[in-house]
Amino acid sequence: MTTQTTTVPAYAAPAAKAPLERTTIPRRAVGEHDVLIDIKYAGICHSDIHQARDGWGEGIFPMVPGHEIAGVVTEVGTGVTRFAVGDRVGVGCMVDSCRVCDNCKAGLQQYCTNGNVLTYNALDKNGEPTYGGYSTHIVVDEAFTVRIPDGLSLDVAAPLLCAGITTYSPLRHWNAGPGKKVAVVGLGGLGHMAVKIASALGAEVTVLSQSLRKKDDGLSLGAQHYYATSDDATFEALAGTFDLIVSTVSAPLPLDRFLGMLKTDGAMVNVGAPEEPVSLNLFSLIGGRRTLAGSGIGGIPETQEMLDFCAEHGLGAEIELIRADQINEAYERVLRSDVRYRFVIDTATI
């Protein structure tokens, strides 16, 4: 068991809005219940960009983003029981929680009432900054590590640790399945996984995108229908249609128009998080007993369930593999929606 802090290569933003650059960071010693993971791949999530550029508030710098981590266990602590050296594992958006609140006890660590510890841009229980997956190694408690099934390649599995679970959780919670009409707003990193998962659950899936530019992709991913929201006729044609709308976009939407697409008792769930406030006329909810909701990631048990589901149905992310020195370019391309559909860093290039 490692008895001292080690230093590993990483890519970090030295300050808010600054380009990411190669550096080194400390990783804690492997404790009794820790695993040391040799990171093979790390996905680039839009939330990495929000945080590296202080879009969601003041960040902790230098910042090493990355919470879509896939790799292999290379060392385990003396008390580890769930993993062994050589196991294929993943780490998502959090690396600890209080573990004693009602939500944590229920496996809903993402809603820890005392505050969970995020994989990066956070302080751990010792007050030290956490650093994410844009690095070669990470040390994580086994309780916040999940197993990647053999049926999933590590490169396409990495984005499932955020994009996959962020969409799987609301689809399961709001009972997407046979007989249900589900709309996915936005066909990006989250949206393309929402389409794949909703389709695999047996729902009738519609993509609502700004244009028809990605229509062929949407249909090939499992959607039955595809509409452009830039066309006013879309909102008229689809009024009262959906049981569930999952919005994956991180820009403000005209919520009242989208809520009008819901059936009575339908729900619109937001998993994308705009930096700006949004407005709402409450009559859009009252008129059809509709629900406007939000959803975060999933807890550790549900994340494992999602990975097993994706392996069973052959669902990996659609990725573009990049070198670490392409991260800054990739950020700009994400902002231009110029990726189909998730950048993944080959961490051997760090």
Automatic annotation (TrEMBL):
Annotated ranges, domain Enoyl reductase (ER): 18-345
Broad enzyme group: oxidoreductase
Keywords: Metal-binding, Oxidoreductase, Zinc
Keyword Nucleus attached: no
Gene3D superfamilies for the chain: Medium-chain alcohol dehydrogenases, catalytic domain (3.90.180.10), NAD(P)-binding Rossmann-like Domain (3.40.50.720)
UniProt-listed InterPro entries: ADH-like_C, ADH-like_N, ADH_Zn_CS, CAD-like, ER, GroES-like_sf, NAD(P)-bd_dom_sf
EC number assigned by the record: 1.1.1.2
Catalytic activity: a primary alcohol + NADP(+) = an aldehyde + NADPH + H(+)
Required cofactor names: Zn(2+)
One matching Pfam family: ADH_N
SMART domains assigned: PKS_ER
GO MF terms held by the record: alcohol dehydrogenase (NADP+) activity; zinc ion binding
Protein family per UniProt: Belongs to the zinc-containing alcohol dehydrogenase family.
The protein's name: alcohol dehydrogenase (NADP(+))
Species this protein is from: Streptomyces wuyuanensis
